[in-house]
Amino acid sequence: MSGIKYDKMAIDFGTSNTVVAFWNEAAQKVDLHHIPDVTLPFHFRHNGDSHEIPYIPSRIYYKDMNTTFIGYQVIEKSLESRQGAFRWMKAYIQSRRNIKFPLSDGTRVDYFQAARDYLERVLLFAQNSGYVDISRCEVAFTVPVESFEHYTEWLAGVCNKIGVKRYRFIDESSACIFGYETHLQPGDIFMIFDFGGGTLDVSVVRIEERVDGGRGCRVLGKAGSDIGGRTIDGWLYKNLLDGAKIHAHDARDASALFMLNVQEIKERLTEQKSHDYDVHHEKSGMRLNGTYHRSDFEDLLEENNLYSTVMSTIERALNSAREKGITKDDIKEALLVGGTSQIPSIRRQVKMLFGDKTRSYRPYDAVARGACMYLTSDVEALYDHIQHDYAIKSYSNKTGTHKFLPLVEKGTHYPTKDDFRKLTLKGVRDGQRFFGLDIYEVAQKGSATQGIGELVFDLSGGMVFDNTAKSGDAGTEFWMNEDKPTFIEADPPAERGVPRFMVSFRIDSQKRFLVTVRDIKTQKLLYQDHPVVKLK
Asked: What is the DSSP letter of 184?
């Protein structure tokens, strides 16, 4: 336990594995944390140094609806092949395969619920470990570059269900670029070589000066192949069984243990030229032992046409980009991400095409790191517009419900002109001294009118809409200035029903929401461009 409480985190929910990152505001860096019994370590070397990246296997097992295990808990307890075990959840959700499976207690669970419960457990582990308060933490989720709207809608529903009030979506290619800490300029073109557990995805993307929908990249070419680390594990597993003269059917009971060691052999061969292994399954008495050489592994990949598949996938992506006038020479950097991209012969293959433009030193955590950095102001400077909706929250005595008066709409370009928005504040009782503005970030837009409006205050000092103002409901909201909502003082005190303050707003070049307050009664200027909150 680091003792640090974070207010920003990112989740790279992958088909095979999930990486969680936290933004350390004091140190201005990204932190990753190991959670006992849940995470496993990725190991890799860069510039002679050894690195360890904690990840959570994207797996969940239901003993019953009230008892679940996730990540390494599932592997350690050999629950992967049991009834009630789910994996590859992201792939099923993206393909909308809503298949229900019975649990041991008779209830039925589909992949959508399994993935939601998995992500909830991931967030709860982060909260219970003391790292975050999920009701206040800002969370970025990575999504495939061309993911269908239903996937982000599903993620938004998950956030609302489990109590995450501030969430962002960033495409995986943009996150990868940010995670590699590349100096970005509008018009820069990158190739993202994403070779993970489930698929190989190659994207040619361009950094856009003006972007829509919160996206930082525009896809110029894309190609994929249904081959990944789990496919290679299958080849290696069969190869080891054949060498030990064990039939796959006979090894079923030992398969979970054997597969864990198959994955270890593959990972070790990324760092060393050979690896000694000795795995004994006590219950069946079966044993796999010997020395596996990197050259043997590369021969295995060649026999299964992996290299030709990789080359054809890259070429298809480049050809697609070429149709839009982009050549290979236009690519600034080729960024490798995903565990399978770390196989030395695969790295060499990409480097043969792109030479010194190839970057491969953040294979496991670039996407999660980049998504976490996306939440910082430096990365968001890429955007020239406000990405979220902001409103003032008020209580309506007439309806007995809270309402929102929109102040800034998503898509608003900044800096804005002076008096971008105006409000008139009235006193609700004689002798009222203090007024405030409760500014909220809202997940869904209200349908209120914009521009001139009036607010009054109830007896407790809370804001109430004037009956002439229209307003719209909002969805998930987050109070941006909870620490200091009341900052306007009436001297002399206000009179009931009498307009007292004219308040105007604008947004400056740093995305700060500035307020100017003039006392109507005394004509004094109380605040000039006073910063209230910073917008996203």
From this structure: P
* Closest by CA position to 196, among listed 57, 69, 92: 57
Q: Give dist(CA 368, CA 171) in Å, integer.
A: 11
Residues in contact with 75: Cβ distance below 8 Å, sequence separation at least 6, in sequence order: 40, 57, 59, 256, 260
Supply the DSSP string of 300-352, one letter for each residue.
Answer: HHHHTTHHHHHHHHHHHHHHHHHTTT--GGG--EEEEESGGGGSHHHHHHHHH
> What is the identity of the amino acid at 23?
W
Report whether 175 contacts 367 (CB < 8 A): yes
pLDDT at residue 303, as a whole number: 95
Written as six digits, the tokens of 29 are 């860096």
Between 19-28, 398-407, 458-467, 485-494, the lowest mean confidence (pLDDT) is in 458-467
Spell out the CATH class of 389-534.
Answer: mainly beta
Classify 529 as helix, strand or coil. Answer: strand
**CA-CA-CA-CA torsion for 214, 218, 221, 225, nearest 10 degrees?**
-10
Residues 6+ apart with CB under 8 A from 385: 210, 410, 411, 412, 413, 414
- Rounded to two decimals, the pTM is 0.67
Write down the mean pLDDT value for the chain: 81
The pair of structure tokens assigned to 416 is: 């804005």
Residue among 476, 475, 488, 473 nearest 532 (CA): 488
pLDDT at residue 264, as a whole number: 85
> Do 389-534 and 8-180+363-374 fall under one CATH topology?
no
What length is written for the chain? 536
Is 8-180+363-374 a CATH 3.30.420.40 domain?
yes
Higher pLDDT residue, 216 or 448? 216
